[in-house]
Amino acid sequence: MVKLALTSSVGIVALSLGGTVSAQETPSAPLAGETQSGTATAASEAPGLSDIIVTAQRRSENLQRAAIAVSAVSGDALRNAGVTKPTELTTVVPALQVGASAGPYSLFYLRGVGNFSSNALSDPAVAFNFAGVYIGRPSGTTGFFYDVDRIEVLKGPQGTLYGRNATGGAINVIPAAPKLGDMGGEAAAEYGNYDALRLDGSINIPLGDQAALRAAATYVRHDGYMNDGTDDQKDLGGRLSFLAEPTDNFKVSIVADIFRQRGIGAGSTPLALDPDDRIGLLSPQGQAFFAGQPNILLGRPFAAPNLAPFMRNNSWGLSSTVEWQTDIGTLTVVPAYRENSLNYVSFVPGFAITQREKDRQGSVEARFATDDTRPIRALIGGYYYDETNDVPFAQYNSQAQISNQRFRQDTNSLAAFGRLTYAPIHEVRLTVGGRYTSEKKTFDGVNASVNRICVIPTQFFPTYVAGCPTAQPIPYETIELPPPNFFPGADGTIAIPSLIDNTGVNAKRNRFNKFTYRLGADWDITSRNLLYASYETGFKSGGNFFSGDTGTFRPETIEAWTIGSKNRFLDNRVQLNLEAFYWRYKDQQISHLGLDSQGTIIFPTENVGRATFKGMEAELQFLLTPNTLFTADAQYLDAKYDNFVYNTPNSNGGFDNGTGCPSLAVSATVYTVDCSGRRPPNAPKWTLNLGLQQIIPLPGDNKIVANVRGHYQSETLTGLEFTSIEYQDAYWLTDASLTFAASGDRFFVAGFINNIFDEAVVSSTFPTTFSFFTVGQLRPPRTYGIRAGIRF
């Protein structure tokens, strides 16, 4: 269905180019200038702040007139901040926290709502959309941050306007579109420490008066930030965009992209060591630390890891947007298809992960929106999404336990949505929206595992005495699962095999249905002052996991109350946006180590109770002089788990449940852990972005632009265990750049330095399985370099 729709779009383009209708001049949307926040620019032609146009509500509108909680960051601002992958967005949007996991996975959190899952069996709580198309796998969200017009970050549940449901919010990446009648392009090169190289280029080619083609490409590489060579980057991407406007009321666009990810991949460090030293687990120091730590299940110290991690991941996608304007409204149809291929080995969480995966997704969205100038305005739409996650091989090896998995998951989602807006007077609008979603998921696979357990008592405290000092760890090079007698029992261990067969009649099939809705009102107090309020519900589908039991988790839901105000003052030189929010989160899905009723070690996803998130955000832009812009964005977040109770295996005889939370109950096999009342992960109380831009005009249409920006956040929990070592202390990150731009920005050269004070900031933490230690991933160290570019 999706491929047929895409083929039809290409056919429509061919017909439109053969027409004889004369072209009409179409004014371009205002361009966002280069600023720290990306939400305004100091215009040289006018004394006030410029506007930025967003499409967060599926219509083009001034950001200051959009009655929703949304932040926009221009492509120039992303480039200036050095953003090349999702994890680097944390420093440009205070409400957003993005961490990394094993392999290529990104972990998105908005105001504390998100998930730590790094597999194909659960959906993200924050939707990621590129060119108007939802991307289902967090492992496929890298490779889009070049030749970007802007990104829009929507805060709070989404679903009544477009795309797929999301409980936390949405990140919309809008690429630069082809321009009719404009022959031109850009090229930029950057070089810095860690042998970092970035090359970007784009070219816009008019095809007659009615069509245009835009081609863009990027190459990014740098050496590893960790001392074992991990945390490197080697990315290559390309994009081809086509636009045809044969008449004033008909438009077709097509976007095709391809991306290749190589290198060693993400790394981590034992947090018991000094994170400032960036000691990777695979370095001599990391191996020595690892070899001195007890393996609780095996009854002896871990063996030093001897892995060779790598990433060989590829993705490509094709989408089209067809818009037809009629006398009563606009019809938009968006068919899309995408494939994502993973092949990687990682040791990020302190155990070995080998995975091969192929993800395929197709979607078709159709929307009809009436004219916004009428007192009654409506939008209705339908959405179809089909995804297949095929994992022929996934292996998890912790030296005492090995699990080989093969599975396939199919997701089929249908939704109908709409919004109705009534404006009793021009300045006041009342809105009601709704969405009904029906999703079907099927899960079919096999999980074969072996646990190697020391049956001789092991002493851990006050001194460590191994019970099975001669036990042989399961080797990392094991590909096929060994038979139960692969390891001799004379060393004091026993090998316990297990098999979870979720194929055939044991395959899991579920359907999840939900109606979500939105109520809103907004009032233009003056032409520059907007007041808005809304109540919205959100939903994220349930799913399945390997288990000898039911192996199904329920959907999670959220209720969100928002009141906000967007304002311009002092002859358009001051912009102040305020927002207060109150969210109630229910049945959050978390993934963790667990046991099924047969005693098999599994990795279930469970619904764990309720949480409350409330707070305020303030965004300020102040054009102090026509050439001096100050920006500030501050968020206060009060977050608490009202109820957070789950079970985790007892692998140490009841000594410690491995968390910072008390045990409600302890049995011979499991702990019942109660983390109620705690602040959730990735939910800092305070987050602050500050920026200052100074333009120094020079003769001959030249200028110097100085930028300084700072990002602060208070203490942040970076894992789900609530242990003291998982808390990242409050920190500041400070960046600066100095740019010389010549001939009206046609040429520029800049020097930059990011993380000036070389802060070692922990972004994600993982307690290593069957151990007493935790590893963590770090954000980039101090980086600096020079970039130059030309526009023609």
How would you sum up this structure, described in words?
With 792 residues, the protein is mainly β. The chain has one domain: Maltoporin, Chain A. It contains three helices and 49 strands. The chain has a 22-stranded antiparallel beta barrel. Strands 3-9-10-7-8 form a five-stranded mixed sheet. Strand 27 and strand 28 form a beta hairpin. The longest helix is centred in the N-terminal third of the chain and has 16 residues. It is globular, with a radius of gyration of 27 Å.
Descriptors:
single chain, 792 residues, mainly beta, Maltoporin, Chain A, 22-stranded antiparallel β-barrel, 5-stranded mixed β-sheet, 3 helices, 4% helix, globular
What is the makeup of the main sheet?
22 strands, antiparallel, barrel
The CATH topology annotation reads as Maltoporin, Chain A
Query: What structural class do the secondary elements suggest?
Result: mainly beta
> How many helices?
3
Overall pLDDT? 89
Low-confidence runs: 7-46
Count the strands?
A: 49
Write the layout of secondary structure elements.
Blueprint: H1 2-17, E1 53-54, E2 61-62, E3 70-74, H2 75-80, E4 96-100, E5 106-110, E6 113-114, E7 126-130, E8 133-135, E9 148-155, E10 169-175, E11 184-192, E12 196-207, E13 211-222, E14 233-247, E15 250-262, E16 269-270, H3 284-291, E17 294-295, E18 300-301, E19 310-311, E20 313-325, E21 329-346, E22 352-370, E23 376-397, E24 401-425, E25 428-454, E26 493-502, E27 508-526, E28 529-540, E29 543-544, E30 552-553, E31 556-569, E32 574-586, E33 589-591, E34 594-595, E35 601-602, E36 605-607, E37 609-625, E38 628-649, E39 663-666, E40 670-674, E41 686-698, E42 702-713, E43 716-717, E44 727-728, E45 731-742, E46 747-754, E47 762-767, E48 774-778, E49 783-791
Parallel strand pairs: 7-10
Antiparallel strand pairs: 1-2, 3-9, 4-5, 5-6, 7-8, 9-10, 11-12, 11-49, 12-13, 13-14, 14-15, 15-20, 16-48, 17-18, 19-21, 20-21, 21-22, 22-23, 23-24, 24-25, 25-26, 25-27, 27-28, 28-31, 29-30, 31-32, 32-37, 33-36, 34-35, 37-38, 38-40, 38-41, 39-40, 41-42, 42-45, 43-44, 45-46, 46-49, 47-48
